[in-house]
Fold this sequence. Notes:
single chain, mainly alpha, 5 helices
Amino acid sequence: xxxxxxxxxxxxxxxxxxxxxxxxxxxxxxxxxxxxxxxxxxxxxxxxxxxxxxxxxxxxxxxxxxxxxxxxxxxxxxxxxxxxxxxxxxxxxxxxxxxxxxxxxxxxxxxxxx
Length: 114
């Protein structure tokens, strides 16, 4: 969990802004992606970017992380819409089901749970 907190901080999101159950579920999803093992250290930053974008929204995300990071995350979410089993899709769904996703993100991508 500490690695996820550090990665969130690098995205300019204080870990306290992300509820513990969301972080626990995110790490669990990452472990599933890693075949049940501890996720590799490099897996935390991409997961934190998706969580940060969904939780703070595109405006706050771009302000803190820049245009390149915004374009990268939005491209990943667009690909996730095509591959609903991807880790990115599951992280977006996690923020949706937890009620932590910004309405601007839902509107931007036309997201629906279910």
